[in-house]
Amino acid sequence: MTTKTDTAAPPSDMPADRPFATGPVLGVAAVAAVVLVLSATRYGYFGDELYFLAAGRRLSFGYADQGPVLPLLAALADTVAPGSLVALRLPAIVVTVVAVVVSALIAREFGGGRPAQVLTAVGYATSPFLLMQAKNLSTNAIDSALWVLITWLIVRWVRTRRDGLLLAAAVVTAIDMQVKWLIPFFWIALAIGSLSFGPRDLVRRPLLWVGGVIVLSVSIPSLLWQAAHGWPQLGLGAVVREEQQYTGGQAMFVPLAVLIAGALGAVLLCYGVWALLRYETLRPYRFLGVSTVLLLVVFLVSGGRVYYLAGMYGMVFAAGSVALVGAVQRTGSRRRRRILLGSGAALAALSLVLIAGSTPWQNPGDIAPPANDTEAAMNIGLFGEFGWPELAAAAVAAHRSLTPAEQAHSAVLAESYWQAGALDQLARAELPEVHSPSRGFGYFGAPADSATTMVCVGGDEDRMRAQFAILEPIGHVDTRLGFLGNTLDVTLWKCAQPRRPWSQVWPEWMHL
């Protein structure tokens, strides 16, 4: 005997289509777009963006720490508008603004009217993290937006049972697999949730499995690259777990996951999870609430970053908005209704204040430098945009201090992939080839064995003395604003007469 949620036809108690609040929602999205475009031009390149640009000049089917989409986008931006921060960041801005609109569409699919749709859009657009992550080109900005689109397609399928939506979700998943490898966790949690609470028919739809074949086929080149290089992307898990000590580790995971949603978003997030699990009108979508909880547990236990769950926020915000607006509309007391509406407006205002505080309107001279590693890590999006021109100028000066004979057989060796990306982008015409054993940059290749004199930017002094017969400081960088270990208190060295050829040393030096 089949249950209502197992049938191929839409459940009879599903809400009918509601008109879309086009004007208000697009208005919210437009304001978000303006804020992001203005923010994108305030400071400089973020460290990861410099790496994406370097990777874009070395296009490949696979990279150690990501898929090929962001390097390709960076290469296109730098070809169309070289040096333009807006062009580089435009893809992240566009998909985030689209996610604002799509989150409101999810509220509509849940049966929410204009108030719920607008509340969802405002919640998404006033989340300091969800919005401001798009002021830089980042894997998470693209990944989060694609998750919002996928969840909308799944929610719409539940209501309409149009299997083409599942195929479309698979196509978006195939694209997302070329950005980041988090989306398989979503589908596993979704399968567990639907098999446990329905609709069980979801995992039996033929077009869903056709879509799975598409995802696998598109991912084959990247998987082959990973296999050929020892699966470095899987090795990054241990690195990520170690990095989480700077944000409080597992003890702070849940509180930070709520806080990054913003003032209004935190309420919508918590109430949305409850509504998906308990709200009668949202019963057909209970599996999405279960999936959200499962993902939270997986990322918490595995030591993932707190924002790994952010792709679910648009859908959960929508559920919370529908439930909250329904509660307001059902109350018979005008006074209580005014209190609820006033509280919502206050939270929205507080969210806007948080957005203003996270938006880079300050002059660099008014920004206090980070006091320690923890503060720098918590504000990495800010401090990671400073110091790169100074680093590039110091590296050029250090290289020019070499004799012509030394310059003829030289290369640059940077301690971090951020430093290497900065030199590759900002001083490429004035420096020899730039290398770094750090993270994905190490897979771009070792210095030539003929490179006998290196300009080493930072690095472990003991390890360098073991490799080079000559080690002399020839420069120093210590910018007022910047990121520790990259532009703050960095020594530049002349490293000459390597004791072993780079083809032998490089595999030992490479690290994630």
From TrEMBL:
Family matches, as InterPro entries: LipidA_mod_glycosyltrf_83, RgtA/B/C-like
Record localization: Cell membrane
Keyword DNA damage: no
Membrane-traversing stretches: 20-40, 86-107, 141-158, 178-195, 207-228, 252-277, 284-301, 307-327, 339-361
Limits of the Glycosyltransferase RgtA/B/C/D-like domain: 65-225
Topological relation to the membrane, as annotated: Multi-pass membrane protein
Main location: membrane
Gene Ontology cellular component list: plasma membrane
GO molecular function: pentosyltransferase activity
One GO-annotated biological process of the protein: lipopolysaccharide biosynthetic process
Keywords: Cell membrane, Glycosyltransferase, Membrane, Transferase, Transmembrane, Transmembrane helix
UniProt cross-references to PANTHER family, sorted A to Z: MANNOSYLTRANSFERASE YKCB-RELATED, MEMBRANE PROTEIN
UniProt-recorded name of the protein: Glycosyl transferase family 39
